[in-house]
Specification:
Radius of gyration: 18 Å
Keywords: 2Fe-2S, Iron, Iron-sulfur, Metal-binding, Oxidoreductase
CATH class of the largest domain: Mainly Alpha
Organism: Phytoactinopolyspora halotolerans
GO molecular function, one term: metal ion binding
Oligomer: single chain
CATH architecture of the largest domain: Orthogonal Bundle
Helix content: 25-40%
Protein name: (2Fe-2S)-binding protein
Strand content: 5-15%
Largest sheet: 5 strands, mixed
Number of domains: 2
Pathway: Alkaloid degradation; nicotine degradation
Number of helices: 7
Length: 216
Amino acid sequence: MTSDQAATTSDGSGDEGLHEVHAVVNGVHRSASVPARRLLSDFLRHDLGLTGTHVGCEHGVCGACTVLLDGRPIRSCLQFAVMHDGAQITTIEGCGTPDGGLGPVQQAFRDCHGLQCGFCTPGFVTTITAYLEENPSPTEAEAREAIAGNLCRCTGYQNIVASVLRAAQLLDGDDQTDGRDQTDGRDQTDGRDQTDGRDQTDGRDQTAPGAGKAHR
């Protein structure tokens, strides 16, 4: 172990001084004093208590930690919090409606059973939210391309693609179909008898702050 490694604890603090980071997170001004090497994902989860942002691979590959930075999706496990002082950040907790209901993308995942274990879902929801801002009427092929950077080990992706198309319908004001007939995943269960999807699509009550880091 090098001297630099020895001086750094598992949370990235080491013997460094603290830096005040201010950000508008989900429309609310938030701040915390953090070490220079605190990851943005840890800042959100540990310092701000927003545990809906999940940490999977910690290498920017799986996409579970995706949040929106000034409206664009980024991997929060690859960014230092101090880099984004003053930024506008949206996490899965900010993707719902003002009254606490499910937002269009979250509702689409519920309608189309676009989740199973739910661990990857926050990253998909934020990614798709940003994508539909740029392309509000995607084709099925475009929907597949949009989610290509996010990994899911449960669903086989068919119902996630259906969720993208369904979310586009909801954002366009069309709530007449639930979207399950848009892909060949239509024969799978819609999940509504198994879970209401709320705890897995809105980011609440999903994991404790340290989840996803058992190896540390």
